[in-house]
Amino acid sequence: MKISYNWLKDYLDLTVDPHHLADRLSLIGLEVEEVIERKFDFPQVVVGQILGVDPHPNADKLSLCRVTTGEEELSIICGAPNVATGQVVAVAKIGATLTQGLKIHKTKIRNVESEGMICSRAELGLEEHSQGIWVLPENLPLGVPLDKALQLETDYIFDVAVTPNRPDCLSHLGIAREVGALVNQHIQKPAIKLNEIKQAASEQIEIEIKSPAGCPRYSARLIRNVKIGESPSWLVRRLEAVGLRPINNVVDITNYILMETGHPLHAFDYELIQGKKIIVRESQKGEKFTTLDDKERVLNKGTVLICDAREPVAIGGIMGGLNSEVSTETQHVLLESAYFNPESIQMSARYLGLSTEASQRFERGADPNGNIFALDRAAQLISELAGGDICKGIVDAYPEAIPSRTIPLQVEQINNLLGTSLEKKEMCEILERIDLKVEGDDVIIPSFRPDLYGVADLAEEVARHHGLDNIRPRSQFLIDYNVQVNFFEVFIDNLKNALVGLGFQEVMTSSMVNSGMWKKLTEQSLHPIMNPISKDLDGLRNHLIPSLVQVVQYNRNRKIQDLKLFEINRIFLPSPDKNIQPPEELQLAIAISGKREGSTWTSTQKDVDFFDIKGLMELIYHKISLDNWQFISYSDSIIDENGLAVSVKKEIIGKLGRLRPRIQEFFEIEGDVFVAELNVRKLFDYRKVDRKYQPIPRFPAVLRDLAFIVQEELHSQDLVNLISKIGGALLTEIEIFDVYRGKQVQDGKKSIALRLNFQSPQRTLTEEEVNSVMEKIIGGVGKTFQAKLRD
Fold this sequence. Notes:
Elements: E1 2-4, H1 5-8, H2 18-27, E2 31-38, E3 45-55, E4 63-68, E5 73-78, E6 88-92, E7 107-109, E8 112-114, E9 117-118, E10 135-136, H3 146-149, E11 155-161, H4 172-183, E12 196-200, E13 206-209, E14 217-224, H5 233-241, H6 249-261, E15 266-269, E16 277-282, E17 288-290, E18 296-298, E19 304-307, E20 312-315, E21 319-320, E22 333-339, H7 342-352, H8 357-362, H9 371-386, E23 389-392, E24 395-397, E25 405-408, H10 411-418, H11 424-433, E26 437-439, E27 442-445, H12 455-466, H13 487-501, E28 505-506, E29 512-513, H14 515-522, E30 527-528, E31 539-540, H15 545-556, E32 563-572, E33 584-593, H16 610-623, E34 629-634, E35 643-648, E36 651-658, H17 661-666, E37 673-679, H18 680-685, E38 702-711, H19 716-727, E39 731-740, E40 749-758, H20 767-785, E41 788-789
Parallel strand pairs: 12-23, 13-16, 28-32
Antiparallel strand pairs: 1-11, 2-11, 3-4, 3-6, 4-5, 6-9, 6-10, 7-8, 14-22, 14-23, 14-24, 15-22, 16-19, 17-18, 19-20, 20-21, 25-27, 26-27, 29-31, 30-31, 32-33, 33-37, 34-35, 35-36, 36-37, 38-40, 38-41, 39-40
Helix pairs in contact: 5-6, 6-9, 10-12, 19-20
């Protein structure tokens, strides 16, 4: 960002040396990379006027000009194409020295004598390239040195590296606010006085916002009877000082306001606005629009478009359209001052590959409540410099006002962060110097500071303007070594260790996936990525299992068949609002395939099955002390119909089972893959925290086997729960060791065989005690489930 020292003096009474000021700006975080001296000193260059232009007798492309400086008449040969009689020009007299050491002598060109030089701006060092000689205003006095006639003052241009979080400093007023805090002055904004005509703007233009998410505010003024022409020299000099090329008075004013306030404006030719209506909407994918640079742009879906009643006239916040630009024929100007969503502008500018002065400010965060000042300031200048009549009032579409934020002024915390001992009064004075208002114990954050959110941000502001060099270094610090334990992180580490101990390998996969493929696999929608790194990675995954299956496929393709894999990572749940970050959940996914015991000479060479994944889950629940869990029947788009869900207190916290065949076929995997997916936060919340040590029993256990014939639809877990309840404290363990369906069991029923372990930590159990409990169990099961003992 280029900042003019002389321009800053419009708002502050500056006497500080420019180079010293550059050093102080760098110390408060606004690094000045270079200070460029723009010196206007042209010895022996005076104001002259061309009295006549004749062709050179010996050269077709040269002219012989008669020039007066008021005191003398000179004969000067000129090759510029725009030279004409009557022009007031800059004349370098004999003895003058121009840029790059060019000295002016009396010389002969093609045998004709030349007594000086008619200068262009490039030859005076005011610009790099010129199309012709510099034509000056007609009212300048002849013979007066050029710098005095134009009242040119040496300027210093600061090249400031503004960090992305400080959009308020992309303007002269923003930098002036920071400079004012350094020199203990409040900036004086330009006074605005508008002479409005009776004709109301609201009667001549209508604004409708159909995309409030992309454009929360759109304001406009109508200025009639403007006269498009060249800008005055002071305005041209201001723009050129900061690297902008003058175009015409109206466009130059919008650029001037951009550099002054940091708020982009756009001027439309009012007569080219069809239906006298502005509609702000989102573009459709593939929609085409021709911008001011005469290039046709193909738009993506969601780009903010400024339209009239018939067609688009501008890409909101980025560039105007060729079909509504201000030209020499323009008589009435519709002046736009809007606020656009930073994320929307950033996404659209990147997609189009189009970065402009406007888009750079909007994508960083312009001031949503500063657009009216910028609009009025521009209207005033258009009235003064282009003779426009300002219609009464502003048409302001602002569906939902953006409120100011407040941050508590926590003096002790700020001092702890900075290592200072400042009083609250001192902090308030520092903050108020940069227009942060303090009310009681709260700091009101103005809308032009989108970077301030917390106490740490306030501490940074205090540090910058108190002076980092005024904060004394400390050789000793009081450090609290009693670090608060993050039990959730400890739980995750223990969970990983448990899985590794069970023979699993951890993998890490990307959260960015192909939304089309993932939607097909999971049969659920995904949250889209607004600015994906590639078209194949345009969504955030909603499940971990497909990612893990991709790893299985990768290994299977490389002849690695026996796999036990797990991943702990985040999934993202779709949000109805694409501009809001989607809810996240931390999940554990497990996948097993291949041989149960690997391909060794001692293994049984049996493939893993459903009971392997079920048994592994039971082991994991035991290791993390999951409390009051149970299995229930479950299936979805990933787990087949014989799957199970893990339920705790009637809440499903996970699922397990065989991967659906259609997904295996999609990944071209031969052989079954068994998977599980669990919510890690729920595992943590439902674990048993108050675990107690129990010594190994010193007394022998009594084992009894039972086989019940029950209805096919009975869940074995329900049977186990009932037996556990009846068995009481003496029944320490229940194991299902067989489930039988066949000739000895009638259709619609099954036999479930269980091994019961009875044990007491205080004594050896008697036969009578165990038989008594067994009778209760047999009777209770028979009564509850109409079950019979199998012979």
